[in-house]
Amino acid sequence: MHTFDFDLFVIGGGSGGVRAARMSAQRGAKVGLAEVSDMGGTCVNLGCIPKKLYSYAAHFSESFEESHGFGWVGEAPTLNWDMLKSNRAREIARLNGIYVQLLKSAGVKIINGWARLVDAQTVEVDGQRYSAKHILVATGGKPSLPDLPGIEHAVSSNAMFDLSPFPKRLLVVGGGYIACEFASIFNGLGSSVTQLYRGHQVLRGFDEDVRAFIAGELEKSGVNIRLNTDVAAIEQRGDGLRVQLIDGSHTTVDTVLFATGRVPLVEGLGLDTAGVKQNAAGAIEVNERYQTSVPSIYAVGDVTARVQLTPVALAEAMAVVDDLFGPPPGKQPRGMSYDFIPTAVFTHPNIGTVGYSEADAADKLGKITIYKSNFKALKHTLSGSTERTFMKLIVEDATDRVVGLHIVGADAGEIVQGFAVAMKAGATKAVFDSTIGIHPTMAEEFVTMRDPFKP
User: Fold this and answer.
1) Mean pLDDT, the chain, integer
2) Which of 99, 405, 412, 450 is least buried, going by the fewest C-beta atoms within 10 A?
3) DSSP annotation of 402
């Protein structure tokens, strides 16, 4: 009988990899994990966590201004950018340490270095080879920058948390959620922000009403959104970066952020050597059990480019753990459903969404009924802010099920999480209508919408 160094070897110490390694070890498996950088992956180090912390920081500028309507007087404090960076770095280091301790406590062997596949059951890290019955690739993704003149003067989202000095003039290129979040955050922190997008509206793939509404709110807050255009070239000059656009115009800024997409982090992994198939975009192809074309090698998270969200990677990791080492006593093996995955975008105001957009629901489900609401939240009756809140429900006529729920407003992500549970359970519009609202809240609007929208 062949013996292996490990029952499971995990390549990548991000959210999915750490979860798979830790839970497998707790089930009694012998587990190794290789990571070349700080533990926690993109989410902890360069994504969700630091971005949300900076989002909180950016909200204070508007909160100080809004406080005057509630009787608070005096000058607002100013941002100490270096202090924010330092405090964020300290918190991320704390989280890195927690991840390491969780792995060690579970008995996972941590191997620092770049891992590559040698064959179906062998991994090499810095010249040392390890054999494993199963291998899990969870290396995530990385920002993708286009090839254009002067691109070396631009930065990706990875560099935004430690910019020095603070950019007084920021150009954000892209229309996805990362671009919109950074445009909104740095606008709140005090930058003069211009956002370019080559399409007709930001946030492609989101509901059209949501796209239009958040664009309007961002512009009201000070973000200059320029659509149907793109960057042609970037040139370093004495007064900053001169950015030439494809329409012949130009602008001068201090920093250019390209947030134009992410690609799977697969270079140097030895996928070809091991025979692991990839799609045209480089993502690792997996089946419903997250097995690659090599049965002993699995992959989860952004490296498969299915749904690039941290909680999805965590859920996929747990499905693999249950499949390989069995579920906890008394539990059924977990699967992963990609229906009704809630999503939040931490713009100002936030976006929360779960289920279908109106266009997708009409295309896939047939006859639907739409409910909409657009209002000024109670807070802003005194704050002086012109911010408004938008809510939308999409109902499948044949079943009365609520199949789409969207909000643009304060704490949208917190609101949508609970409704996602109800929708996952099959809640109908009748159930929504019979639910008592909490007054006065924005969330109660979802259970008080009675009149269908008539175009």
Assistant:
1) 97
2) 450
3) E
In one-letter notation, the amino acid at residue 42 is: T
Give domain 343-447's CATH architecture: 2-Layer Sandwich (3.30)
Tokens of 16: 């999915």
**pLDDT at residue 1 in the model:** 54
Report, as an integer, the average pLDDT of 396-407.
98
CA distances from 444 to 372, 413, 436 (A): 13, 15, 8
Give the whole-angstrom CA distance, residue 98 versus residue 125: 24
Q: Can you give the residue ranges of every domain in the chain?
A: 6-142+264-325, 151-260, 343-447
* Distance, CA of 93 to CA of 362 (rounded, Å): 47
Question: Closest Cα to residue 428, out of 419, 437, 441?
Answer: 419
153 is catalytic: no
Strands (E), 259-376: 262-264, 297-299, 343-345, 351-355, 368-375
Choose which CATH entry (3.10.150.10, 3.50.50.60, 3.40.640.10, 3.20.20.70) describes domain 151-260.
Answer: 3.50.50.60
Distance CA 448, CA 440 (A): 12
**Do residues 254 and 240 lie in contact, with contact meaning Cβ atoms separated by under 8 Å?**
yes
> Per-residue pLDDT tens for 99-138?
999 999 999 999 999 999 999 999 999 999 999 999 999 9
pLDDT of 295 reads 98
pLDDT tens column, 188-227 = 999 999 999 999 999 999 999 999 999 999 999 999 999 9
Q: Is the dihedral of CA 436, 440, 446, 448 positive or negative?
A: positive
The pTM (predicted TM-score) of the whole model is 0.96
Contacts of 192 (CB under 8 A, 6+ apart): 168, 169, 170, 222
pLDDT of residue 145: 96
Structural contact between residues 336 and 319, judged by C-beta atoms closer than 8 angstroms: yes
Q: How far apart are CA 269 and CA 274, in angstroms?
A: 9
| Residue 9 · residue 134 · CB < 8 Å | yes
Whether 151-260 and 6-142+264-325 are alike in CATH topology: the answer is: yes
Peptide bond into 349 cis (omega under 30): yes
Backbone angles phi, psi at 80, to 5 degrees: -100, 95
Options 3.20.20.80, 3.50.50.60, 3.40.50.2300, 3.40.50.2000; CATH for 6-142+264-325 is 3.50.50.60
* Catalytic site residue from 68, 250, 380, 439: 439
